[in-house]
């Protein structure tokens, strides 16, 4: 759907984009991640023809050569506060010269974003979550194939976030391709299939979330014993001498052992043997894998 190659953009002497490559698969939610100032907003503005690029290619590949329609929602959408929701969406229908029934489409998009009840109220009385949902209703009005959403859940309360995420999920299920730019990593894990992490004007890591986690995340075994006497502690700590064990830590206040290993399955099997040999019974033993947020922090801080 979106294929960006060697994208370049400078503001004076400051180079914002320095050879960005980016690929967004058709029909997926793509999590677009990176620190503030890394070039995400500049990339989205170029993609949506808001600003020109200095170099590189931006290729939008529609089905069977069709022209791609893009819907772009900035982080803080500017809506006409003196209008109500119905009036604003009728205005959007007129602006985009909607070919079908504007009235029917207004009802459809209000249903999609769950805003039918609030649509008679003046926009100036809307919560931030209602503003975001009305903004999404506006950008999907003319049936875009690609949605670009910049921080759509930023500064929302938990209920508002859940509402917006439900809208994004419904749109994705309908086949829309979505670029979701956000700092809220749990939202990305819930709905995105692929991600790209930008650093310094380039793409540092990109691909399926499952593949990135498999490649970059580390796992560890967490263990609690019913009886953490000296012999049990010593037996588990001694596992650090095994070749496939990187480190064993014991946190006395919580009674938790953390065993870091490149092969967590082997570590877990060996733990069972060690505990049985020392007559100890595990209260809890589980494998914990680093989250997307932990992988993201490693990448942007140069530790991946």
Counting DSSP E segments of at least 2 residues, the number of strands comes to 13
- Main sheet: strands, sense, barrel: 6 strands, mixed
The residue fraction in helices comes out at 25-40%
Low-pLDDT residue spans: none
Strand arrangement, major sheet: 5-6-7-3-8-9
Q: N-to-C SSE series? A: EEEHEEHHHEHEHEEHEHEEHEH
Under the CATH scheme, which architecture of the largest domain would be assigned? 3-Layer(aba) Sandwich
- Strand residues, percent: 25-35%
The CATH C-level name of the largest domain is Alpha Beta
- Could you say how many structural domains there are in total? 2
Specify the overall morphology: elongated
What is the fold-level CATH name, i.e. the topology of the largest domain? Answer: Rossmann fold
Distance between the termini: 28 Å
Could you tell me the radius of gyration in angstroms?
25 Å
- The count of helical stretches stands at 10
Going by CATH, the homologous superfamily of the largest domain would be: P-loop containing nucleotide triphosphate hydrolases
**Overall residue-averaged pLDDT value:** 90
| Content-based structural category | alpha/beta
Q: Can you describe this structure?
A:
The protein is an alpha/beta fold and 304 residues long. It has two domains: 2-214, Rossmann fold, CATH 3.40.50.300; 217-300, 2-Layer Sandwich (Alpha-Beta Plaits), CATH 3.30.70.100. It is 35% helix and 29% strand. The protein is built from ten helices and 13 strands. The protein has helices at residues 40-47, 85-95, 102-113, 128-139, 158-173, 185-191, 209-216, 230-237, 264-277, 292-300, and strands spanning 2-11, 14-24, 29-34, 55-60, 70-73, 146-150, 177-181, 194-199, 202-208, 219-225, 245-251, 256-261, 282-289. The strands form three sheets. The chain has a six-stranded mixed β-sheet, with helices on both faces. It has a four-stranded antiparallel β-sheet with strand order 11-12-10-13, covered by helices on one side. It has a three-stranded antiparallel β-sheet with strand order 2-1-4, with helices on one face. β6 (146-150), α5 (158-173) and β7 form a beta-alpha-beta unit. α3 crosses α4 (128-139) and α4 (128-139) runs parallel beside α5. The longest helix has 16 residues, at 158-173. It is elongated, with a radius of gyration of 25 Å. The mean pLDDT is 90.
């Amino acid at each position: 759907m979106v294929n960006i190659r060697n994208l370049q953009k400078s503001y004076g002497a400051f180079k914002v984009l320095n050879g960005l490559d980016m690929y967004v698969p058709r029909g997926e939610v793509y999590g677009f991640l990176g620190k503030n100032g890394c070039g995400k907003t500049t990339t989205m503005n170029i993609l949506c023809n808001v600003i020109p690029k200095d170099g590189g290619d931006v290729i939008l590949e529609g089905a069977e050569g069709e022209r791609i329609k893009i819907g772009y929602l900035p982080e803080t959408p500017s809506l006409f506060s003196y209008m109500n929701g119905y009036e604003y969406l009728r205005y959007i229908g007129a602006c985009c010269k909607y070919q079908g029934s504007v009235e029917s489409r207004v009802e459809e998009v209000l249903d999609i974003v769950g805003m039918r009840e609030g649509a008679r109220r003046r926009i100036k009385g809307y919560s931030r979550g209602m503003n975001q949902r009305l903004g999404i209703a506006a950008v999907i009005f003319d049936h875009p194939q690609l949605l670009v959403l910049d921080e759509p859940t930023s500064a929302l309360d938990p209920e508002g976030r859940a509402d917006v995420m439900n809208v994004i999920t419904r749109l994705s299920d309908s086949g829309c391709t979505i670029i979701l730019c956000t700092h809220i990593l749990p939202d990305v894990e819930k709905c995105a299939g692929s991600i790209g992490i930008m650093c310094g004007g380039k793409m540092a890591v990109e691909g399926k979330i499952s593949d990135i986690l498999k490649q970059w995340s580390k796992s560890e075994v967490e263990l609690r014993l019913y009886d953490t006497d000296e012999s049990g502690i010593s037996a588990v700590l001694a596992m650090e001498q095994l070749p496939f064990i990187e480190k064993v830590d014991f946190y006395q206040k919580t009674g938790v052992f953390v065993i870091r290993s490149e092969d967590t399955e082997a570590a877990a099997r060996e733990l069972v043997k060690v505990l049985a040999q020392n007559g100890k019974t595990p209260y809890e033993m589980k494998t914990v894998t680093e989250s997307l947020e932990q992988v993201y922090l490693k990448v942007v801080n140069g530790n991946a």
